[in-house]
Prior knowledge:
This protein has 11 helices and 18 strands. The protein has helices at about 20-35, 55-70, 95-100, 150-155, 155-160, 230-235, 280-290, 320-325, 355-365, 380-395, 405-420; strands spanning about 1-5, 40-45, 75-80, 105, 110-115, 120-125, 125-130, 135-140, 165-170, 195-200, 205-210, 220, 245-250, 255-260, 265-275, 300-310, 330-335, 340.
Amino acid sequence: MHKFAHLADVHLGAQKTPELKKLEFETFKYILNTCVEENVDFIIIAGDLFHSNLPDLGVVKDAVGKLKEINELGIPIYVIYGSHDFSPNATSIIDIIAESGLLKKVFLPEIYDDEETGEEKLGLKFTVDPKTKAKLVGISAKKLGLEREYFKMLDRTSLESEEGFKIFVFHAALEILKRDLPTETLKLSYLPKGFDYYAGGDVHSASCYKDDDPEYGWITYPGSPFAGYPGDLEMTARNKRKSGFFIVDFDGKIQNVKFKKTKLVEYQYLPFDADDKTSYELNDEILNKIEETEFNEKIVIVKVRGTLTSGKTSDINFNEIRMNIRGKGAIHVGISHYSFHSREFEAVTYKGEEDSEIERNLFKENISNVDVLDDDLNDENGVELAVNLMNILKESQKVNEKKANYSSRILKDSLNILDI
């Protein structure tokens, strides 16, 4: 019997406050220490180990130190890029660490012309784990979901005909999740058939699928073990998100898939509804709730939403609220008030929890007011195109990147999105 671990979306470097930075790295250490205790033969990281392709060097130093410990124990770590640690025009930190031997990339592509059709095909080379003889292969993510082109070009025949215990590693959401996700999803048919295990990343809440359909094996998403975005903390506090990693036993076929939680601290969720209240009534309600509640060693998420009957949103002293909760022993206080507004501003407010969601909703509500020649762009297709194009135009110039190269990169990516 052999054993491996599967994690994803660690997002090292995402957190900015000292207390969350500490928890972020402690969670990563907990996972790797548990892998050692479980005596795994190898570890899979299905993308977004880091929150950016060139993260803070202090974050890298701590991560490399822990990865070195695992390497010295003889446990290989197989990895692909996620959309965050992928870099189209520069070396990613993943490449640098892989060059040292602490990580092994399993996206080994070869693009060639199909002799029969003349179309470009993407061939993938298997990586064989030396101890277990498990065969790993995968597709790395790119920015804005552009890895979809990789899946369309994929030579599935060679992958599906390969014998042995096979693992496919990928970083993209599948439509079988049946969730209202902010990103486009892939059809299940995009994945090659006949693999024993599909190690997914990109989805921040844990999921596990095993259909009766024998053409696909286990399809799993471990979720983000701590938090890649502020919304992850809120969803954890609301018990709407599972975070952790998988331990998998196999002996030529999967024998057991076990989920291990990585919730190292307690959370508390405090929701408040502004509807039918004045700003002063709401402020008193929040302060009274804080007064009667203990928050020792917890991450506390305060959610304020709705429309005040009178008064301004600025009448709510969020700084005082935060300080009062911290004064009662909370590790961290997050306050969400994106959906909170005064009546006089209600008409021009667009709902959403994150900036990206607000932007998408703004496009949705206004797309029909734009005159376009292509009728297909007057619906979700137009929204998706606008969001993707805006994300490219928001990209900043990289360190040491010349202005001409930056302009050329933005133009090239924009034309790619527009399919020109």
